[in-house]
Input
Amino acid sequence: MPPEHEYSLPESLPILPLQEGVAFPYSIIPLTVTDPAQIELVDRAVVGNKIIGLVASRGADTPANDPDDLYGVGTAAGIVKLYRFPGEVVRLSLKGLARFAIRSFSQKSPFLVADVEQLHTEWPQKPEEVEAWRKNIEMQLKQIVELSPGVPEEVQLMGLLKDPERLGFIAAAGIEANTQDKQAVLEENGILPRLRLLSQIMSREIKILKLRNKIQGQVRSEIEKDQKEYWLKEQMKAIQKELGSGEGENPEAAELREKLAARQLPQEVRKAAEEEIDRLARMPSGMPEVAVSRNYVDLILQLPWTESTEDQIEIDKARTILDQDHYDLKDVKERILEFLAVRKLNRSAAGPILCFVGPPGVGKTSMGRSIARATGRKFVRISLGGVHDEAEIRGHRRTYVGAMPGRIIQGLREAGSNNPVFMLDEVDKIGRDFRGDPTSALLEVLDQEQNFSFRDNYLNVPFDLSSVEFITTANLLDTIPPALLDRMEVIRLSGYTVRDKREIARRYLIPKQLKSCGLTGRSVRFSKNGLTGVIEGYTREAGVRELERQIGKIARRVAVEVASGRDPRVLVTKGNLGKLLGPVRYLSETAGRSSRVGVATGLAWTPSGGEILFVETTTMPGSGQLVLTGQLGDVMKESARAALSWVRSHAESYGIESDFQKLDLHVHVPAGATPKDGPSAGVAIALSILSAVSGTPVRHDVAVTGEMTLHGRVMAVGGIREKVIGAAAAGIQSVLIPRENVRDLEEVDADLRREMRFLPVDTVEDAVSLMLLRGGS
Output
């Protein structure tokens, strides 16, 4: 195709906007077109004269067909090659022909068409000056090639061009420059001003290349290891040095130094903080490590290394606080007062780690808050239920993205004191998996011989935990590892009796719920039998959480009446509970029951308190098999086999003539969906089997607990207090217990002991004589 001054453009051209870059005459322009309207433009041009007007856009994000965002001067280009790809993608190779100026747009949809005027280069009278500028451009082009080894081959050959116009346009197309500068070169009509402007742009480009090569040279000389991350950091450092931004300290680092100077810290901690601040001062502000270092130093500055609260222990005041916050629990309160008395007399003494064990809702967590109130210390509580990752206790190492300190350090930061009362809730529900064993991490926390230098992985400096008063809570001891349990003193909190719950409701729960609902004691009152009805008919728990919810439900119903403008003044009695709370949820386990053959009433201990269970036995013709159902554990199954063996060995003395080899026995313990285990149902199973094979009913109004031996001796069992409370809650007034457990009745409240009847036995024969109804008595 002829050069610009030899080529004649048509008066109208289809316009294809360029989102990036500027097209010049004589240059080869590769383009990819995906817009359907622009593809239509290309198709029409191919059919016609194959000439397209290429015009640069003022912004990369502007709409493709917006005339207002296009420059006024562009380059006409001829289509050299065209390739079509699947998905409506067209790739073009065009050659720049001549410059033009847009006069107006004759079409804006589906693509732009403009009336154009061809622009011609203005040449001066003296060609010597033009030649001088051509040689200057040629020299600058050689410098760019030398400074940029990766320059394309066609740009390296441009120096061979003797036509100043062609050389200028191709050079402008090949160098790195912004769109505004390149557009200015394209729009300049005079050859001398055009070459002069291009020379300025190339001079600036040469300076940038020299500076870049200098920076890269400085970095390469300092790099010892060929690592990409290290190279990038050193390169940024060299850039900062050239720009002069590396002089002086980061203002953020200076601020942290001032805060550090004002804090009293252990020497090792201060040294670690100063080293981290030094690293922070050398980092460019945009690096991700800046936030990591800043957060680390902030944590050090926020932790209470030397801040502590002074103990204000007064035994009488502590006793008052415990009585205000908790009803009954005399043994627990006495042990806490002993603990506080020792702490007052010898502040340096290492006290035990208290572990409150009991059913949910009996006041374990609130007891920790009361200890904090009694000592004047801050209170921190973290729940460890479901924790599987050791890093939850000991923290993550700072090399990990999103690393955080462990929950112990976080709790101390929250408390703002290095000697708070720190409650570790639900330690019996800690799990373990491939990420570690959190209970092993707790060993160091709770061991007073080690925790004076507890080292969190994130903090990585020792923190003294010896002044922290750790308290733990659990529902069960079985799941706590022996090594952890050995570091704690267990204090058991048993379930509450109906009388206890009634008193707790009157003193604490009812006032709390009335206040939360905006009511007064005049709006709603509870009678004694009404409160008892709520406890026995709508709750089945050792604690009082569900009782509080039911009281809150009544209070909210009354609140609706009050908010509606009425003055209800409700008296809650047993008669109107159905209207307030709906149908009764729990009926007495013994209500409507009578003494039956093969059915004995046993007692069980669960994490939620004591409960009664029924042992049912039936006989059928068979081959002497014993069938056990009800999800019984191995220990309970062995108890059933021992009971059967005892019954068979004593069958003659009880007048049983059945041939056990021709008899199958089926022992079932409802409810079948609940797993059961333990030895304390041995006596109840023996009574049930003996009743079934002898046809003699078992008393239904007496609950039985006790482990039996193969020779019929009744052995002591655990959980007597909880079992007695469970029997009373089920409406049973008599309990048969091993004689060895009589001493445990001291733990049962005196009022409940007076209400209940206890039948101590030494042997299964004693139990049989008390429980089997012979001749109707």
